[in-house]
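Re-run with default settings, no changes from the original entry. Doing this only to confirm the output is reproducible before filing.
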Amino acid sequence: MEPLSLRYPDPAIEVLHPDFLKLRLYSASVERLATGLRWAEGPVWFGDGRFLLLSDIPNDRVLRWDDCSGAVSVFRQPSNHANGHARDAQGRLVSCEHLSRRVTRTEHDGRITVLADRFGGAQGARLNSPNDITLCRRDGALWFTDPDFGLHGHWEGEPGTPERPHGVYRIDAATGRIDCVLDDLAGPNGLAFSPDESVLYVIESRAAPHRLIWAWDHAADGTLSNRRLQVDADGPGALDGMAVDVAGNLWCGFGTSGAPGTDAAALDGVRVYNPTGRPIGHIHLPERCANLCFGGAKGNRLFMAASHSLYALYVNTTGAVR
């Protein structure tokens, strides 16, 4: 554990609105837990084992950070350039794989089961490159995004041709049926449910001129309605993955979109929005944050996968999913 600042309160934790004060712990600081990755993504917490898994996509591996020892080891290599991860209703690891263009589940005995690789049956179109995934707890369905980022070259997959529009999919827990629920977003990326799962949030990471977060009402049968804009990045900030806390605040991986003249140091980190979509806080990191999750023994530790490193921060809330 390496704190980035010895001062309390940590100057890296910026309050943008008084609502953030109740979420900030005065005597907690940003800590670097691991480094040496090429592009860190997809953290998922395993509380029963007290460890965290995260992807290092270009290095084609999934790493394991141990909460007891602080040790980092290789959990899986090759990983098919895995990106996002989650746990299903039985606590099994589910993973989005860019190279194989599929979603898989790791069984308790280590076997790999393919949950989705095509849409429209065995002869249907291949998925593009599944990116991020989340669980709906009330019915066990898995929801994942499928942009084409893994088809752009050998860095996060391999060159390929999209066979489907960018989409958001739902895998039914009882039948395994795959439904495309959205296919009109440019680069759907991070996704998460509100604490009561009545709202689905999806980041449109290639929206122009600014990155956006959309919200839909989520019905008991899995259908979506009442699309509305939840967050407009309102500038060059690049939204990526996100996590939601028990109060409904959105904690979003953030950084520069790469637009000329942008100040990466001011943007890299985590941007926090309240349930109305208002920015209330920013956790500044020395690297762009791609994705994050809540975990730790009490669920009040925010883990942040940021470019070359894994960071953590204790906060005064817990995750809706952990």
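Residues 264-267 form the longest helix (4 residues). The chain is about 0% helix and 45% strand.
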